[in-house]
Design a protein that fits this description.
Layout (H helix, E strand, L loop, with lengths): L2 H15 L5 H10 L2 H11 L3 E2 H11 L8 H13 L3 E5 L8 E5 L1 H33 L1
Antiparallel strand pairs: 1-3, 2-3
Length: 138
């Protein structure tokens, strides 16, 4: 396709797609695929951890590509706790400072299930990114 046609096609695609998805849309897709619960269960399996630490670890691990905000993390932690997959305990119960979470036995079973369930999605995502890099950068 000649350069002019490529630019025109790209402009039309952008126009048809509407506005660009926000990083939150990417996080939403990863959460729907089970990636965020998988990561939370993974990190709590390593030992007690708290919400802010989880957000920092996920951001650091993904070099900021997957940035989880408190409006996503804390409802997820409450859901995982109410489902019996993690247990939370206040560091100082009298002043509710920091809530540490640990994995339960049910959480370990769910973690193992998610590891298998999410793998095809992550593999496809990885391949797609590799193809984009190859196509664009050679």
């Amino acid at each position: 396709m000649p350069k002019g046609e490529t630019r025109r096609a790209a402009a039309e695609a952008v126009e048809q797609a509407g506005r660009r998805p926000s990083p939150g849309a990417i996080t939403g897709q990863l959460r729907k695929a089970g990636v965020l619960p998988l990561l939370v269960l993974h990190f709590t399996a390593e030992g007690p951890t708290y919400g802010n630490q989880l957000m920092e670890r996920i951001s650091a691990m993904t070099e900021g590509v997957l940035s989880v905000n408190p409006n996503t993390m804390y409802p997820l932690l409450r859901t995982l706790e109410s489902d019996g997959l993690i247990e939370g305990e206040w560091e100082h119960p009298e002043r509710r400072s920091r809530r540490y979470y640990r994995l339960t036995e049910s959480g370990r079973e769910e973690y193992e299930r998610l590891v298998e369930e999410v793998r095809p999605f992550l593999t496809a995502l990885s391949r797609s990114i590799e193809e984009i890099v190859k196509e664009v950068y050679g």
